[in-house]
What we know:
45% of the residues lie in helices and 15% in strands. By secondary structure, the chain is α/β, with parallel strands linked by helices. The chain has a seven-stranded parallel sheet with strand order 3-2-1-4-5-6-7, sandwiched between helices. The relative contact order is 0.14.
Amino acid sequence: MMLAGLFDLGGRVAIVTGGSRGLGLQIAQALGEYGASLALVARKQADLDAAVEQLAASGCTASAFAADLGEPDAAADLTTRILAHFGRIDILVNNAGAAWGAPAEDFPLEGWSKVIDLNVTGLFLLTQTVAREAMLPQGKGSVINLASIEGLLGHHPDRLGTIAYNTAKGAVINMTRALAAEWGPRGIRVNAIAPGFFPSKMTGATLDAHGAELLRQTPLGKLGGETDLMGPALLLASDAGGHITGQVLVVDGGTTII
């Protein structure tokens, strides 16, 4: 009973960005099943509505908040709306992201700006605003940043270059450590999850071209599945992970160990 209580998120509010599908929806499902009220964030209202309906069917409480976090004013408006709706914010899952493929020597400024504006600047602005308006006044909170093994490794030269994405995810990893160090004394834990390859809209082209090769390079011999981020996210969001901060939890089937 005591152990189960450590994972209980009843009474807490969790924001999940990029929460209408894929990894974000998987994480939202886990947090919702353990009692969190969910604020799902994505750009498209129709996708959000479908995700809310799916979560409700499994007994989760979720509300939709459409926003484009690549826009500099989005964080303040979004935080205001969520606080007005729920009255508090306890967990922030920064999952929204974008990628762009091109050789580094030809990488367009448009692609660089799109990736950095959302994956780094947008992530920071939302985290800053949520901390200032909710978590710091409460004296407690958990931030989970979705990084990537691409932020830990050089990109394989046989695959289309993703220099902006690699740079962004590397920045997210060290931002995680820096914020954890600064806000730890004030009750906020900040951690990152670095997934390997999961089937998604973002990874589709890479998996079509290199899927068999990636499986050979993964000791567990499989891609990330529909439940593989649930446990890590629940641990870092809940009191079960209460003494964990500034860490990067790699969820890649062992790809980065060989």
